[in-house]
Specification:
The chain is an alpha+beta fold and about 300 residues long. The protein contains 12 helices and 7 strands. The radius of gyration is 18 Å and the shape is globular. The model has no long low-confidence stretch (mean pLDDT about 95).
Length: about 300
């Protein structure tokens, strides 16, 4: 299959179409990004690599990092992780509080804000130096020691993160946060501030396309069954209350972030990352969603 031709045709076509959506101005640092940025990077497990547009420009990957924190917690706790956080799609917005009381402080899944906050609490309890250890884990998975937190973005998000503060303290009141909420939130905001470009992002997630093994060096990150379950959670929960729509139109496990990034994997074949900052009404990249729908439609390759 001529992936180069398909990717170029889709990219160029979308570039000529209307670029709809809005920038998430509630995080001041993200509001500064040009809405016209658009990058795509494709990585096949046979090492075919294709980049288009702004694929080498770093951006804040935001909630995409939640897959990596979930992965690290899953490695540390195994199936005990699911005693603290669920595996069901929430059906509500990513920062919703409404289900927590009915669910006794157990977030529906690790990829909404409440769930990621609980995962941060878990990592604070099991890691010796949580922020340093997590960053080293991400650098190792990415095979890039330059990956780092953005203190500028973290502080910007913290300055307006009132709902995340509410989530953390409410979960604490229900007994599912064990550490000091200030420490948990500081870790959470740092975690969401990690910056990558599309190329780095596709390489980072390639282990989830390869049965839990990093393609470049053969190091195992997750077992095969753990990889299958992480991919399943991305498929059902990776796009907040638009996860069903993404499964319907694209048909790949993936994760979005309000920085405009989306990364998806096709198990045993490839990983692909797209970045375009304008978001649709559900908080997912408008161009990113459109690109991936056209890509799986034209290649006729998806998990369904």
């Amino acid at each position: 299959m001529n992936y180069q031709k398909i990717i170029s045709q889709i990219y160029n076509k979308i570039l000529l179409e209307e670029n709809k959506g809005t920038i998430p101005t509630y995080i001041p640092e993200l509001a500064r990004i040009s809405p016209e940025k658009f990058g795509v990077y494709f990585l096949n497990l046979n090492q075919t690599q294709i980049g288009k547009g702004d694929f080498q420009e770093k951006f804040s990957i935001q909630s995409i990092t939640k897959v990596l924190s979930m992965t690290m917690a899953y490695r540390e706790l195994g199936n005990d992780l699911w005693k603290r956080v669920g595996i069901e799609s929430s059906g509500t917005s990513f920062n919703s509080l409404v289900q927590l009381e009915a669910d006794n402080g157990i977030p529906r899944n690790p990829l909404i804000n409440a769930g990621a906050i609980v995962v941060c609490d878990i990592l604070l309890s099991v890691l010796k130096n949580p922020q340093e250890d997590f960053l080293k884990f991400v650098q190792d998975v990415t095979n890039n020691s330059s990956i780092n937190y953005s203190l500028r973005v973290a502080n910007s998000e913290k300055s307006v993160g009132y709902r995340n503060f509410a989530l953390c303290y409410y979960i604490k009141s229900l007994g599912n946060i064990k550490n000091n909420p200030i420490d948990v939130l500081d870790f959470y905001f740092k975690l969401c501030s990690i910056e990558m470009n599309c190329q780095e992002l596709a390489h980072t997630f390639s282990f989830l396309a390869n049965d839990g093994v990093k393609p470049h060096d053969g190091q195992r990150i997750l077992t095969e069954i753990q990889t299958k379950r992480v991919n399943a959670i991305m498929q059902t929960c990776g796009f907040y209350d638009e996860s069903g729509e993404f499964a319907f139109r694209v048909g790949l496990p993936g994760k979005s972030g309000v920085g405009g990034g989306i990364v998806s994997v096709m198990p045993n074949q490839y990983s692909i990352a797209v970045w375009s900052p304008l978001l649709n009404e559900k908080g997912n990249s408008y161009r990113g969603m459109k690109f991936l729908e056209k890509f799986t439609t034209q290649t006729r390759i998806s998990v369904f």
